[in-house]
Amino acid sequence: MTLPNVRETIFSLKSYLSAIMALYLSYSIGLPRPFWAMTTAYIVAQPWSGAVRSKALYRLIGTFCGSAMTVYMVPRLSNSPVVMTAAMVAWVGFCLYLSVLDRTPRSYLFMLAGYTAAMIGFPSVSDPSQVFDTALARVEEISLGIVCATLIHSVVLPRGLAPALTLQLDKAVRDAKLWIHDTLSGQTAEQKDRDRRVLANDITQLRLLSTHVPFDTGNLRWTAGAVRAMQDQIAALTPAVSAVEDRMRALQADGRALPAPVSQVLADISEWINAGAKATHEAAVQLRAAVARLTPAIDSHSSWRDALLASLMTRLRELIDTYDECLALRREIRAGLAGAPLRPSRGGASRPSHVLHRDRGMALLSAAAAGVAISACCAFWIGTAWSNGATAALMAAIFSCFFASQDNPVPGIMQFLTYTVYSIPLSALYLLGIMPAIHSFEMLALAMLPTAFVLGIFIARPASTGKAMAVLFGFLGTMALQDTHAADLVSFIDTQVAQCLGVATAAIIAAIFRTVSADWSARRIQAANWNELATLASSPRAPARHTYAARMLDRIGLLQPRLALAKRPDDLVAADALKDLRVGRDIAELQRARRHLPMADASIAPVLDSLAQFFRARSAWRGGDKTPQLLAQIDRALASVSATPGTVAARDRAVVALVGLRRAFFPEAADYQPAHPTLETP
Predict the structure, then answer these.
(1) How many angstroms separate the CA atoms of 358 and 413, rounded?
(2) Which of 204, 510, 540, 593 ranks highest by number of CB atoms within 10 Å?
């Protein structure tokens, strides 16, 4: 064991201070379960003050909703155990379903609303007339723990989220810069794949971490709009860099070299990006002008190489604009942290907030597994008339919820069970040996300090957080026997058996009904991409570009750890997901451009229809073949759009999108032949 550092020590002491304050106030007020308040203070504790406040808010709301449902349900159904169990299963399952769908810290609200009802409802079945008083006491105890934890972590040496968030922002920009540099300088595919995987993970971690920004104690909370905008810009870099890489590969096929001016502008862009924070906006303007000069005009005589070059230049211009905007937003966030006023948000408030991947099937499966586990414990409880059966049922509910978001929740549940068992000797020492000799609160606080301090140190370390929380959960749960004046050996053993049986039931049911392989999960994520592409192609209106890119990139981030667990020999699935990201962007651009090209719409519509059918078949795992008919449709659309007079910007966007689609689906096909090729003089 390494010695604790300053941050770990401060966190442990603050957590203990908030917990002992909650315990003292609970005793002073005369609440029936003071140790519930102490447990809540530790559960809410987080390294960052903003995370404590957001978790506290969601826990408070979730506890209130779960308690209200218990007050409504128990008096009406307590005389019918089967109906009562079914109602509780339905409520916990519904809340867990919503929790798994919402992959932000807000999911804690739904999870708490579910298992709080089980925590209060099952022990109240034996005396339903007291359910309101019990629910009110639980809300008061939990609220007291929340308030104490929030107060201490917000006032006593608060640790703001700004250092961690800005570090993650800078890491994402640095990794994006590395990927762009490796792409423009022609590094190996293996290196570029590694760069892309790191960036995808950065963006997902950044998006999850930034959900706490509005609750931060410092100036960071005023920069929430800029942070959100910067996340979107970093996400938008991914399809742009991938498209640049693909067009460079196409232009250099068969040993051909890039035109000298193009190679020079690529080197200039790489040099500008490598400058990092020193890269100036003026240099970006000059680079955009250089790229614009090298962009060939597209008409009915343009060759395939002209179209590829126009596509490359367009994506390079987008890359420059996006990276320049990232740097501007990073400077704005830095100034905002120093107290400077921020410019108005750039449409951030109008963009949808739900950009993360949702798997309704897995959420439903998690809810069903939780329902089966609760039902099994309740059946045993009812059948045997076990006096502590309620404890087993509520533990099954809690642990079915805790690890529901994982592909395989069994290892997490078993680890919690193992360390809960490890806590039994410690719990027995305190409950049966130390507590009977304590006759004042001061002695109690001093007696608990060594154990609480050591556990707080391990909770502060990410590698041991789960294990330490399991020991703490078992320790404080057993100490709660003191609240009910049942601190004897028989009650202790009965409670420990009930806790272990409930957790074990949750693990067994999860192993039978809920566990899925990494391969299966990766296939579902990929199918979700294809389903969204089918919807995108068949929809008359494309979604916001940043929202779509962020969700697709989030799926790429979700694929990476699953592919590692599956020990796949290659990264084809992730590469396909990145190609899908480019395809989605091209489809969205084609949808936007077709509204301004009515004369070419008759040739664009068949392309979109074929793409919708292709991805619909793939999402249903019915194959989906890239037929020569689709290639012919893309070529006809290219010819029609190139020859269409009117809005030059819309025509160029449509050509770039069609070039991207042709490269994505038919990279080895013969070059596109224009309908009216330019005659070359001998």
Answers:
(1) 23
(2) 510
